Amino acid sequence: MAQTSWRIGFVEPVDGPGPPSRRVRIARPVLFLLSLVVLAAASSFASPAWARDESPGRGGPGKAVDPDRFDVVVLDAGHGGHDDGATGPSGLHEKDLVLDVTKRLARRLRRSGIRVILTRSSDEFLSLEQRTAVANDARADLFLSIHANASPSRKPRGVETYFASLDATDDAARATAERENDAFGHAGRSFDPADPLTAILGDLIETEHLLESSEFAKLAQAELSEVVRARPRGVKQAPFVVLMGVRMPSSLVEIGFLTNPDEEKKLRRKRRRDALAKALAEAVLTFAERYDRRRGVSLSARSGSASTR
Q1: How far apart are CA 204 and CA 290, in angstroms?
Q2: What pLDDT, in 10s, does the model give residues 122-174?
Q3: How distant, in Å, are the alpha carbons of 107, 115, 247 from that of 156?
Q4: 3-state SS record for 242-294
Q5: Per-residue pLDDT tens for 190-218?
Q6: CATH of domain 28-55+67-303
């Protein structure tokens, strides 16, 4: 009797004895991303050695902390090591720029009482799996990945903020996601949107933390737009794989176009980097207050607004 094998998108006969059966063959990129979601749900392991936590832990010795309270943020500086990311006309590398801005942001948040964990604190490359594991093992309340943009043209400028979706807002958003995903090699390459398992993954992304991810992205965009006074590029959705495997609200920010000579020049300045860090800190603290309020957590005074730091 012929067996039936269900391969994604079609049915093919398989010769052999026994009753009819169905075998599912899963495309590797989709299987990898689905595994990240499953592992995230079951994550209860100790943080690995490459999770850089330099601030007091949640509920330190003798401290009773409401588990629903917003108090842990994972900051992910994009690229690193052999992966330079985008490079500006005068040679500024994205990996160096975003690491510096990430560290400035971390200092501000820590002074406001937030526990901050960095996926990387030096010039090193981390895999997609490592980056998402840092966030999930820490059971963070927010995951923020920081990048700088690039374009074939030198004209584009300004900031963009993203949250995860299988459907990109537009072609430019899709191209940005593909460029950032390429850093992770096979694990980051695009997958077939017509694949039924891809649709399942999309449902998981869109139902888990979608509203809060969108909310934070809007807050970040508003704050960053006050620093980078250019035509608003807005909040967008795109399939960034680094956002798909985390079990918490998450966002990716592009803090400027390194390929724009004027913007690259400004991004070299400490004053601009401090302003970007301050804007992101304000967005995080505003989001934290809303997060706690929705969960009925007492809004105990934090160490102060990022604007005073």
Answers
A1: 23
A2: 999 998 889 889 999 999 999 999 999 999 999 999 999 998 877 777 778 77
A3: 30, 35, 33
A4: HHHCCCCCEEEEEEEECCCHHHHHHHCCHHHHHHHHHHHHHHHHHHHHHHHHH
A5: 445 555 555 555 555 545 688 999 999 99
A6: 3.40.630.40
- Residues recorded for the chain: 309
**Total-model pTM:** 0.74
| Contact criterion met (CB below 8 Å) for 40 and 246 | yes
User: What pLDDT does residue 266 have?
Assistant: 97
The residue ranking higher by pLDDT, 121 or 187, is 121
Residues 6+ apart with CB under 8 A from 251: 142, 143, 144, 145, 161, 162, 163, 213, 216, 217, 220, 243
C-alpha triplet 285, 289, 55: angle, nearest 5°: 50
The string of DSSP codes covering 198-229 is HHHHHHHHHHSSHHHHHHHHHHHHHHHHHHS-
Helices 210-227 and 196-207, packing angle to 10 deg: 70
Q: Which two tokens stand for residue 168?
A: 């990109």
Which tokens belong to 238? 């795109």
Helix then strand then coil, in percent of the chain rounded to 5, is: 40, 15, 40
Residue 80 per-residue DSSP state: B
CA-closest candidate to residue 110, choices 79, 71, 76, 160 = 71
Tokens found for residue 4: 């039936």
Which residue ranges make up each domain of the chain? 28-55+67-303
